[in-house]
Design brief:
Layout: H1 3-12, H2 17-35, H3 42-56, H4 63-72
Length: about 70
């Protein structure tokens, strides 16, 4: 293992649980890129479920609304 990683992991033990979880999620994302598999976070899964529910209720942006967003970033 890289010496910089070894030193960092020794310090990580003193991090808050939340910061350790953030580091774990980042590492999982790197690993997924290396293996071609992506695992959505619980927050991403919640957002996906909300978007699907909106679609099921027919809550769609109009063509005019979509065009306005695209125009904003052109």
């Amino acid at each position: 293992m890289n010496i910089h990683l070894e030193k960092m992991f020794a310090r990580v033990e003193n991090w808050s649980d939340e910061d350790q979880e953030d580091l774990a999620q980042a590492a999982l994302e790197i690993e997924a890129r290396r293996h071609g598999v992506y695992r959505a976070t619980p927050e991403e899964l919640k957002d996906i479920d909300e978007a699907l529910a909106e679609l099921a209720r027919g809550e769609l942006a109009s063509e005019k609304e979509v065009e306005a967003i695209f125009a904003k970033y052109r």
